């Protein structure tokens, strides 16, 4: 038995997948391994770390999926891939069938392929499959196995063909002159969606599209919860609260008091969960179809004026789901613009939990439409904040990566991503918020909560906000959905405030600082000095911009 295990370990094949961004490496990895964490997304930079797994049909073949290469950018993702390339492993070059000649030529020029055991997989065969004579010509020129696949529809026969190519990998010997004889695919480059090509109207429409990506789910959630909330109150929460109120006062305060686990916790869940779900659905749809990258490409000229590129906007959009994931995805940005990108994520990317909390508060104040100017101001101030504090120019980053194809939705990938968002909300976000509710209830019952108000007193007095609003600002530093604490007493505090006070309070709670988890992640990724710098600059921008907005609201109201 031991000898068999040792013999098996000696025959194991270590393979790394290498190629440019958006060629289908993650889709190929997923099809061969069944690894759910590698579900491919039709968006650049979806792979942010090395993923490892064994092939389903051949467990002796171990695959490593690496981030896509960006040869003109010194991104952390590209460096990770280059580090793995130096290892003595079989290399599986992944290229698009429509750009096979160009991509193999680029990989030959940028990487030292000579002496490496290599096989080639050409993806997107559904877009272009050369005739058999041309396939044979290509194999004769490169002298390594070449397999054409559609990574979205790979049966066992396709998988076996790829594995066979891996096992028959040959030492690379093709030179640049030999690659010049490769036949052209004859396929035209994928172009920007026509509506986004217009010089001025295109970027404007792209802005409205991004706004709609979040406004539509939020309004849908508002309409649904407005219908559901009275039913939940009448048939579930009120009977439970009436029964618990007969319990000892301390227990009743913890469960059904102003910050009660049941009263505030259930109310917040009712408003936050639909927003998280619908935003996840919308972002997953735009990723799967490929339209998200067309939108960011359309905005590229405008973004360069604030020190970013269209490529950098992808992590910012991801941040509207989760800031932490967005910071990790920024590894695909150039080192010249990554800090700028992370700064905008921390300030302007309102995560889905924060959006749900914001909608909840505006709805409790009977002013849900305040969410629209709130989101608009967040976008505008975020862009100004990035330009003022990060003056690095992005104009020297001239490479424009190929656009992804507009494709049908991969429902398996779509379902997995939405399910992941729901799981993250239920197992991570909601438990933390309930802990915040529990802590606030205990402190309130012990008459200690009022002692913490002094931490937020300077901001409270500066903007003439109620003293009882201080806990909302304090807990928002821990997590952005901590501002749901402002719903205490079923919105009684909000009823005592003017609309301008509510707007400024929510804006400050959202922008004074990124949540602690995000700041911690930035510290680990970019260094603690950078994290503190981003936090300090954000706080200053938040206070100054809030003062300007408050002045404008004073004249309006």
Walk me through this protein's architecture:
- With 557 residues, the chain is α/β, with parallel strands linked by helices.
- It has helices at residues 2-10, 25-33, 76-85, 100-110, 132-142, 156-167, 176-179, 201-244, 249-256, 263-289, 291-298, 300-303, 310-318, 323-329, 338-348, 352-364, 371-389, 411-445, 457-462, 470-478, 488-495, 499-511, 516-526, 528-556; strands at 13-18, 51-54, 61-65, 90-96, 117-123, 146-148, 170-171.
- It starts with a helix and ends with a helix.
Short account of what is shown:
This protein has helices at residues 2-10, 25-33, 76-85, 100-110, 132-142, 156-167, 176-179, 201-244, 249-256, 263-289, 291-298, 300-303, 310-318, 323-329, 338-348, 352-364, 371-389, 411-445, 457-462, 470-478, 488-495, 499-511, 516-526, 528-556; strands at residues 13-18, 51-54, 61-65, 90-96, 117-123, 146-148, 170-171. The chain has 557 residues and is of the alpha/beta class.
Outline the fold blueprint.
Blueprint: H1 2-10, E1 13-18, H2 25-33, E2 51-54, E3 61-65, H3 76-85, E4 90-96, H4 100-110, E5 117-123, H5 132-142, E6 146-148, H6 156-167, E7 170-171, H7 176-179, H8 201-244, H9 249-256, H10 263-289, H11 291-298, H12 300-303, H13 310-318, H14 323-329, H15 338-348, H16 352-364, H17 371-389, H18 411-445, H19 457-462, H20 470-478, H21 488-495, H22 499-511, H23 516-526, H24 528-556
Parallel strand pairs: 1-3, 1-4, 4-5, 5-6
Antiparallel strand pairs: 2-3, 5-7
Helix pairs in contact: 8-10, 9-18, 10-16, 10-18, 11-13, 13-14, 13-15, 14-23, 15-17, 15-24, 16-22, 20-22, 22-24, 23-24
């Amino acid at each position: 038995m031991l000898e068999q295990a040792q013999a098996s370990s000696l025959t194991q094949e270590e393979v790394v997948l290498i190629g440019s961004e958006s060629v289908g490496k993650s889709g190929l990895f997923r099809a061969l391994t069944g690894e759910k964490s590698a579900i491919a997304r039709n968006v650049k930079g979806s792979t942010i770390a090395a993923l490892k797994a064994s092939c389903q049909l051949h467990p002796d073949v171990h695959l490593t999926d690496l981030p896509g290469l960006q040869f003109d950018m010194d991104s952390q993702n590209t460096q990770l891939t280059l580090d793995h390339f130096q290892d003595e492993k079989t290399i599986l070059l992944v290229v698009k069938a429509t750009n096979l000649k160009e991509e193999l030529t680029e990989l030959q020029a940028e990487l030292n392929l000579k002496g490496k055991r290599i096989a080639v997989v050409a993806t997107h065969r559904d877009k272009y499959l050369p005739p058999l004579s041309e396939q044979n010509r290509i194999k004769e020129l490169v002298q390594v196995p070449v397999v054409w696949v559609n990574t979205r529809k790979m049966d066992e026969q396709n998988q076996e063909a790829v594995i066979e190519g891996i096992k028959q990998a040959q030492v690379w010997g093709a030179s640049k002159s030999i690659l010049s004889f490769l036949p052209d695919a004859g396929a035209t480059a994928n172009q920007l969606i026509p509506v986004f090509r217009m010089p001025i109207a295109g970027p404007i429409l792209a802005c409205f599209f991004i706004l709609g990506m979040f406004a539509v789910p939020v309004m849908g959630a508002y309409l649904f919860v407005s219908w559901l909330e009275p039913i939940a109150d009448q048939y579930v929460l009120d009977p439970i609260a009436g029964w618990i109120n007969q319990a000892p006062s301390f227990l009743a305060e913890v469960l059904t008091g102003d910050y009660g686990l049941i009263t505030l916790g259930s109310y917040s869940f009712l408003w936050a969960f639909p927003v998280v779900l619908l935003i996840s659905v919308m972002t997953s749809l735009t990723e799967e179809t490929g339209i998200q990258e067309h939108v960011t490409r359309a905005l590229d000229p405008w973004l360069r004026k604030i020190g970013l590129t269209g490529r950098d906007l992808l992590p910012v959009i991801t941040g509207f789901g989760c800031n932490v994931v967005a910071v990790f995805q920024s590894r695909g940005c150039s080192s010249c613009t990554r800090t700028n990108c992370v700064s905008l994520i921390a300030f302007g990317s309102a995560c889905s939990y924060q959006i749900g909390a914001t909608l909840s508060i505006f709805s409790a104040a009977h002013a849900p439409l305040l969410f629209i100017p709130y989101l608009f101001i967040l976008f505008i101030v975020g862009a100004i904040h990035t330009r003022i504090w990060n003056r690095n120019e992005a104009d020297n980053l001239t490479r424009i990566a190929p656009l992804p194809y507009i494709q049908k939705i991969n429902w398996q990938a779509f379902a997995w991503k939405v399910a992941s968002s729901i799981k993250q909300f239920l197992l991570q976000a909601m438990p933390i918020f309930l802990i915040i509710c529990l802590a606030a209830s205990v402190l309130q019952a012990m008459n200690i909560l009022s002692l913490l108000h002094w931490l937020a007193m300077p901001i409270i007095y500066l903007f003439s906000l109620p003293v009882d609003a201080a806990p909302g600002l304090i807990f928002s530093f821990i997590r952005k959905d901590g501002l749901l604490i402002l719903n205490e007493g079923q919105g009684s505090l909000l009823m005592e405030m003017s609309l301008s006070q509510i707007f400024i309070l929510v804006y400050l709670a959202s922008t004074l600082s990124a949540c602690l988890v995000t700041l911690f992640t930035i510290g680990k990724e970019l260094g603690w000095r950078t994290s503190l710098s981003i936090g300090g600059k954000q706080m200053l921008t938040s206070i100054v911009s809030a003062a300007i907005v408050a002045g404008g609201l004073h004249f309006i109201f």
